[in-house]
Design brief:
Blueprint: E1 11-16, E2 19-23, E3 29-36, E4 39-47, E5 53-55, E6 67-68, H1 73-82
């Protein structure tokens, strides 16, 4: 999945108070935002050919560990898709 281009908009789906799933325009999971202390950190997720999860992989692997001061969908889209 790492060669797949992700199109905007990315969607944010809260899973718990400190974890938010990040999905592409087709609803496929491409990562998670995790609250670590006072910031949110993006954790890229991809799929191996056998369907196993690849932490740090996938189409947004270059943005793994990107830090966000706040959970804001517009900012997440801008930073993860706009800095290529």
């Amino acid at each position: 999945m790492s060669g797949v281009e992700v199109q905007a908009p990315l969607g944010l789906r809260p899973l718990s108070e400190g974890v938010c799933e990040v999905c592409d325009d087709r609803g496929q999971r491409v990562g998670r935002l995790k609250r670590i202390g006072a910031v949110w950190k993006f954790k890229a997720i991809g799929l191996a050919p056998d369907g196993a999860l690849e932490p740090g992989g996938g189409p947004l692997t270059a943005h793994h560990n990107t830090v966000f001061e706040q959970l804001d969908a517009e900012l997440v889209n801008q930073r993860l898709l706009g800095e290529r």
